[in-house]
Amino acid sequence: MTKQKYFTLILILGALTALGPFSIDMYLPGFPAIAHNLHTTVARVGLSLSSFFVGISAGQLLYGPLLDRYGRKPPLYLGLGLYVAASVGCLAVHRIEALIVLRFVQAIGSCAAAVASMTMVRDLFPVKDSAKVFALLMLVVGVSPMVAPTVGGYITTAYGWQAVFVALGGLGSLLLLATFLWLPSSYAPDTTLSLKPRPILANFWAVLREPQFTTYALTGAVSFSGLFAYVSGSPLVFMDLFKVDAKVYGWIFAFLSIGLIGASQVNSQLLRRYESAQIVPVALVCQVLTTLALLLLTLAGVIGLIGTVALLFVFLCCLGFTNPNTSALSLAPFTRNAGSASALMGAIQMGMGALASVGVSLFNAHSALPMAGIMAATSLLALGLLLLGRQRVGQLVTGDAVGGLH
Fold it and tell me: What are φ and ψ of residue 193, in 5° steps?
């Protein structure tokens, strides 16, 4: 594979992976404007974010079997088309309920991009390179929380929140074109796979029976759900509690994202000396200590804007180490049913994220406590799941050791 082709693949796969996060981050600065325009509250607008997470979680279970049955690109065309249509629909809403529903539909479309890109990593690159490729994808994905809320803040201020969905629809259209022109067909359709419910469920069950998958998929999903708590709670924490405006909020969000990006790239270098299964527990312990500090300082009422930003930065650094490695370790045992495994991993991750997001919205106490509490709880739970799961796996494993299991 030439360097140019490698770069093109990483860029397109990264952009596809980033479509969902970009759709989440870009409209966050518009929460107060949406609430005012639709005559509702910021917390209720947050439910449109939760519905997006639910849509991604449910949709990934749909696209996994489709990607294995029909190949990677046809389901991707379907999903991106649905995403563009829903983005256009968001322009015309007059009630928050309509926005919540359309965001769910938009998520169903965007998750085709997420599942396809994760699966194609397994198709196009050797197992031993998976963690490095995932880290590179996170570099592209990391541009989203740096750019999206900042751009979203300026667009909302200049043109109104509806213009954000014009931009998202345009992005979806560009990705549809790039997929058609430059993304290779990486997998021959498997016509032996049935799309009837029973065989699909049996296939998912076969994936769940793999101890390495359940250990690292659950650990990664629960750990990563703290990010969704942060994303859902940050508009209230920064714009309502600390009284920053939409533009400043966008810049804070962008700065914090540097932690996620930087750590994921440091992780790529660490993989030259350490195995993925060695990095994950160290990062999780750091994540637990950081989120507990945020919770305790918030409870004591002694943490301000700078302290909150600093601890959130460290938290995102921890995720930059855990997420690429848990993703690679989860998918390493699979070849034939990699699409279903990727979909199931994504569904678990987004399902956990949806619960965390709903928790922040429902237990909104006009303080940072719901966000900090859920971040601490999920970090502790993830560490516990890792310790219990590694006993089932029986040993530290790497992609080289397990690449041929299935």
Answer: -80, 130
**What pLDDT, on the 0 to 100 scale, is given for residue 306?**
93
pLDDT of 394 above 70: no
pLDDT at 401 over 70: no
Q: Please, which residues have CB within 8 angstroms of residue 291's CB and are 6 or more apart in sequence?
A: 226, 311, 315, 372, 375, 376, 379
Question: Rounded CA gap, 345 and 343, in Å?
Answer: 5
Torsion of CA 402, 353, 9, 121, to 10 degrees: 20
Q: How far apart are CA 80 and CA 67, in angstroms?
A: 14
How far, in Å, CA of 117 to CA of 399, rounded?
A: 19
Instruction: Name the fold adopted by 3-180+207-393.
Output: Growth Hormone; Chain: A; (1.20.1250)
Q: Which residues of 324-355 are buried (b: 16+ CB within 10 A; e: fewer)?
A: bbbbbbbbbbbeebbbbbbbbbbbbbbbbbbb
Angstrom distance (rounded) from CA 318 to CA 258: 12
In the three-class reduction of DSSP (H, G, I as helix; E, B as strand; rest coil), residue 272 is classed as: coil
Report the greatest alpha carbon distance in the chain: 61
**CA angle, 14 then 166 then 357, to 5°:** 60
Which distant-in-sequence residues (6+ apart) come within 8 Å of 399 by Cβ? 127, 128, 130, 131, 276, 328, 329, 332
- Spell out the domain ranges in the chain: 3-180+207-393
- Centroid of chain to Cα 32: 24
The per-residue pLDDT for range 189-237, each reduced to its tens digit, is 777 777 788 887 888 888 888 888 999 999 999 999 999 899 888 888 8
Other beta carbons within 10 angstroms of residue 7's beta carbon come to: 11
∠ Cα 125 131 136 (to 5°) = 85
DSSP for 290-303 reads HHHHHHHHHHHT--
pTM for the full predicted model: 0.74
CB 264 within 8 A of CB 14: no
Burial class (CB in 10 A: 0-12, 13-18, 19+), 183: buried
Residue partners of 158: CB distance under 8 A and separation at least 6: none
